[in-house]
Amino acid sequence: MIYLTQLIYIKEGQEKVFDQFEDIAMPLIKKYNGKLLLRIRPDENSFIENNMEKPYELHLVEFPGPDDFRSFMHDEERKRFLYLKEQAIRSSIIIQGTKL
């Protein structure tokens, strides 16, 4: 099992476009044996300490293995809507881990 944590930074004013992309991409995770474990949109009070820019949203996803994740990333339906992602997301950080 692999775990992916994604920190997402969106462009100002693109919240609705981001939500449009997520409405398409999130259901596809299950198609590739993945599971969305957490989807968090933290507010200012959620941070105790930070030494980096605060993300707009955080995702924690699990997949049985890297091949499932790669298949999700190359899904044709998802790829058709990547323009929404590019319009809305300024940058993101993906951290891969395993359960200890």
In short:
This protein is α+β, with helices and mostly antiparallel strands and 100 residues long. The protein has helices spanning 15-31, 66-73, 76-80, 82-88, and strands spanning 2-10, 35-40, 57-63, 89-97. The protein has a domain at 1-44.
Task: Describe the structure in your own words.
- With 100 residues, this protein is an alpha+beta fold.
- It has a domain at 1-44.
- Helices cover 37% and strands 31% of the residues.
- It is built from four helices and four strands.
- The protein has helices at 15-31, 66-73, 76-80, 82-88, and strands at residues 2-10, 35-40, 57-63, 89-97.
- It has a four-stranded antiparallel sheet.
- Helix 1 (15-31) crosses helix 4.
- The mean pLDDT is 95.
What are its keywords?
100 residues, alpha+beta, 4-stranded antiparallel sheet, 4 helices, 37% helix, globular
Order of helices and strands: EHEEHHHE
Shape: globular
Structural category is alpha+beta
Work out the helicity level.
25-40%
Which sheet architecture does the biggest sheet show? 4 strands, antiparallel
Estimate what percentage of residues fall within beta strands. Answer: 25-35%
Going across the biggest sheet, name each strand in turn. 2-3-1-4
Question: C-alpha Rg, in Å?
Answer: 14 Å
Unreliable runs = none
The N- to C-terminal Cα distance equals: 11 Å
The total of helices stands at 4
Q: What is the tally of beta strands?
A: 4
Look at the structure and give the mean pLDDT: 95
